[in-house]
Amino acid sequence: MFIGLLERYAIQGTLFTSFDRKGYREQAIRAIAHVLRADAGA
After folding, report:
1. Which pLDDT tens digit goes with each residue over 1-42?
2. What is the DSSP string of 7-28?
3. Which of 25, 33, 35, 42 has most Cβ atoms within 10 angstroms of its Cβ?
4. What is the C-alpha separation between 27 and 13, in angstroms, rounded?
5. pLDDT value for 19
């Protein structure tokens, strides 16, 4: 599941890298955690 999540973000334009580059590490972690919760509930 987690590998698929990483692949999904890579396909969507490296969301985490984009956030990290701008210094929004915390927001990136929150966004990933939100998707993880959504996947777990699906």
Report:
1. 566 766 776 666 655 566 556 666 677 778 888 888 887 775
2. HHHHHTT-HHHHHHHTT-HHHH
3. 35
4. 16
5. 57
Q: What do you get for the CA distance between the two ends of the chain, in Å? A: 12
Residue located via tokens 């973000």: 9
Q: What is the dihedral of CA 41, 6, 8, 23, to 10 degrees?
A: 100
Q: Is 31 helix (H, G, I), strand (E, B) or coil?
A: helix
CA distances from 30 to 14, 25, 27, 35, 37 (A): 15, 9, 5, 9, 11
